[in-house]
Specification:
This protein is an alpha/beta fold and about 350 residues long. The chain is about 40% helix and about 15% strand. The chain has 12 helices and 12 strands. Mean pLDDT is about 90; it is low at about 355-358.
Length: about 350
């Protein structure tokens, strides 16, 4: 029987989404689907999420969207975008009877307008208003398939291996920059290059997703040109799409985007969220979830959102900040509206560490 993974949590007998979930379970079972996580009590981690994806033939999200639900949904969308073979032909349906997913969809629409998401999320994260609509949508995708994400490989990744150079002893810490690998706006690229340079000049390591293009490539370029210690992590199927930048001090090859995030978080002391797309949203949500959980990987590590305004005065992350304001604790992240505000915010959040004596 085909297996569908159900996301969402049942919050007791008074949960307003309980009835819709029960109806959905009945319909799925009656149509021959086996259901993972029918009780809504399974936890997903960065280490096991790819295995959960491999095990399933379809994914269904239920009403009552939480931070973790949104992380899983955006992760699947990123998988579609990056041609993850483990997601090939597997549909994702979101049952949105309570409209709790609307702010999430609004973020994706905004990023599409800003140019960092090229695809229409409606073609991949298929919304349903009724439990029966979920069944109809799953059947439609089984017959017609999913649309092409519009990406092409530019190279091969078979020769890539992990390598490491130690962080200089006088460094104050490593800053991970999550950002777009597709945005080519000259202003954003200049900011990325400047941030990389500022980190190197401030004796801070620069960690990134090790992409050659877009803001990601510019950040790496700025750090490398200034003589900074620069590291990154990437996965084979994304390397084939984006290539690798030159000059990395250390590189961690990982098998999937989740363990890629994990090694970047492990090796970083602070995080800057630059303008980006679905992958950047995914990475930020992972940081917020870890902070909520008190995960040791995020204790004492500041997160700074660079909410840059474009030429029209539109601030890049306003919709996402609005979404997170209802889901995250106060102080989980800091907003910087100018490039000059980023490093002071990082320094203020980092534990005090004196440079090593010469």
């Amino acid at each position: 029987m085909p297996k569908v993974r159900l996301s969402g949590t049942v919050r007791g007998t008074d949960d307003p989404g309980r009835e819709a979930r029960a109806r959905l379970l009945y319909l799925l079972f009656s149509k021959g689907w086996d259901i993972y996580n029918s009780n809504g009590d399974q936890r997903i981690t960065l280490s096991n999420i790819e295995r959960k994806i491999i095990e399933s033939e379809a994914f269904v999200f239920t009403p009552g969207a939480t931070l973790e639900d949104m992380f899983k949904a955006i992760s699947i969308f990123v998988g579609y975008q990056t041609l993850d073979r483990n997601l090939s032909g597997k549909p994702t349906v979101i049952l949105n009877t309570d409209a709790s997913w609307n702010p999430f969809f609004a973020v994706l629409d905004h990023l599409n307008q800003m140019g960092t998401i090229k695809q229409d999320h409606r073609d991949f994260l298929l919304a349903a208003e009724l439990p029966q609509d979920v069944l109809d949508t799953l059947e439609m995708v089984r017959m017609k398939g999913l649309p092409d994400a519009g990406r092409e490989k530019i190279g091969e990744s078979s020769a890539m291996t992990t390598f490491e150079v130690p962080v200089p002893e006088d460094y104050l810490g490593n800053v991970c920059v999550f950002c777009s690998a597709t945005l080519e706006d000259p202003g954003y690229l200049a900011d990325g290059r400047a941030l990389g340079r500022y980190l190197a000049e401030s004796r801070m390591g620069c960690v990134s997703g090790a992409g050659r293009s877009g803001i990601m490539g510019a950040v790496v370029e700025g750090s490398v040109e200034a003589g900074g210690w620069t590291a990154g992590s990437n996965v084979p199927h994304i390397i084939e799409l984006e290539g690798l930048p030159d000059g990395l001090s250390s590189f961690w090859l990982r098998p999937d985007i989740y363990t890629r995030m994990e090694v970047m978080i492990e090796n970083s002391d602070a995080f800057v969220i630059f303008p980006g797309g679905a992958g950047t949203v995914q990475e930020l949500l992972a940081l917020m979830i870890f902070k909520q959980q008190g995960n040791p990987l995020m204790v004492g590590k500041p997160v700074v959102l660079f909410n840059r305004a474009n030429a029209l005065g539109v601030r890049f992350w306003d919709p996402l900040i609005g979404l997170l304001s209802n889901l995250c604790e106060t102080g989980a992240f800091v907003v910087a509206e100018s490039l000059d505000d980023i490093l002071p915010a990082i320094r203020e959040g980092l534990p005090v560490k004196q440079p090593a004596e010469a």
